[in-house]
Amino acid sequence: MGEKTTGRWRKAFVNSTVLTLLQVLTIILRFVNQTFFIQILGKEFLGLNGLFTNLLTYLSFAELGVGTSIVFSLYKPIYDRNYKKISALMNFIKRAYTGIGLVILVLGVGLIPLFPYIIKNYGDIEHIPIYFLLYLSNSVVSYFFTYKRSILIADQKEYKSSMNTFKYTLLQTVLQIVVLYFFKAYSLYLIVATICTLISNLSISALVNREYPYLKENTKLRLSRFDIRQIRSNIIGMVGSRIGSIVVRSTDNLLLSAFMGLAIVGIYSNYLLIVTSVSTILSKLVSSVTASIGNLIAEKDATKSLFIYKTHFYINLVMTTITAACLLVALNPFVHAWAGKNYVLTSSTVIVIVLNYFIDQLRQSSIVFVSAYGLFVPNGKKSVIEALVNFILSLTLLTVFHLGIKGVLIGTILTNLLVNSWFEPLIIFKKGFAIKGKFKTFYLKTYFGNLFLMGILIAVLAWLVFWIDTYLNWPALAIAIINVVLIAVFMLAIIIGIYHRQENFVYIKSIVLKRLLKQSGARRF
């Protein structure tokens, strides 16, 4: 293994480990924060906060994938140590993000007259426009100075950016809890968030200036017309991807707010926090190697890239299966213990929530390789269709069939299965690996075969755990913990039995054993 390859995967391991740890700690802070929020402000304000989050996600469409396109464009100059090209790219993204922040401010203010139409029982909470402007200010401020995080991500040092974010998230959480406890004021809660975001961005800017001093020396450099055309092409492709991502992931609360009210959004927000937290941890794990994969792709070895793609898929499959099983058996007892029985959803709704998580999370390997190969244009065209299909299905199931939260999520599940599950790997095989002939085998056998097998396994083991629960007269939190332990142990044992001879798992095991032996040897001497 070459020196560059060793360094690449060492950085990927550091990134993955640190990002996951920080994400876990950040999630703990979010739960503490939301616990105080629920107890002091209640489900209506919780629903309002969730709606604001979705609206700002829609406004983030103005970003147009500029950040992702620039990170992709930075891989090669960083690999080649082309400091002038790096500086020119960073100067470009600085100007772009400043403009984006101003556009989001204007678009956000333009949304305010629509609030009576998208919030059922709009008059139940006073000063909603003021609250939204405060929430909006946090989003706008986040675009200033944050562009410098791009070079850390592309240089496989995202953990430094995340450490900075965590430090100020901790400060923000403490201050927001103090504000809630003593003043019970949502407005002050939002002001604290804006101040902490601004300080965090100023801090990361100073850090990048220290680590990459040549950026300050080359502030006048500009990209060539060819480079701008290439970035523009990627951005055009990302427009479709942004539309698909926003509509698929951020329509739920908007539809629920308009047709069912803020209280329902508040109840669903607790489940969304838990599921999103788990999803974010897994996504950090699987996406933290994107830069390393980008470096691997630069070697132009399609066979090796395909093998790593399948290995990545199996790692993601195992993590997704185990976490989905844990969520299925623990969500309701945990929410009961944490927020109270008034915040608990029906078992059938929980099944749909977990199924949506399972199907969506299985896409992550394809998403990582689409980004690493820079396949933004073909994926963007698909995403426009994805957005239309998802919106029509979710709206129909919600309003015509009156399925509530289940209808909105079933629309997303069907969209992922009918559109995303086959198209994303197809463009990777066709335009990335350039071996389209192997796609059919991967899709039918590797993807769908394992999806079906793991789905059956989750259902059977969940039924077994729920049967055991009928004999336990324990508190809800204890039930949640024992359920997670039982199903995780059962699931892991069965998965090892099924896959232990599969070539990608043998490869993973060899890598893990080498690392353990290396660490053991280091400790010995």
How many angstroms does the end-to-end distance come to? 24 Å
Shape: globular
Average pLDDT works out at: 87
- E-strand count: 0
Structure description:
With 525 residues, the chain is an all-alpha fold. The protein is built from 21 helices and no strands. α1 runs parallel beside α11.
Summarize the structure.
The chain is mostly helical and 525 residues long. The protein has 21 helices and no strands.
Secondary structure blueprint with pairings:
Elements: H1 3-59, H2 66-80, H3 83-111, H4 115-118, H5 128-141, H6 149-154, H7 158-183, H8 186-211, H9 214-217, H10 225-250, H11 252-260, H12 262-287, H13 290-297, H14 302-338, H15 347-361, H16 364-373, H17 376-399, H18 404-432, H19 439-469, H20 476-499, H21 503-524
Helix pairs in contact: 1-7, 1-11, 1-12, 1-13, 2-3, 2-10, 3-5, 5-8, 7-8, 10-17, 11-12, 11-18, 12-14, 12-15, 13-16, 14-15, 14-16, 14-19, 14-20, 14-21, 15-18, 16-18, 17-18, 19-20
Structural descriptors:
525 residues, mainly alpha, 21 helices, 0% strand, globular
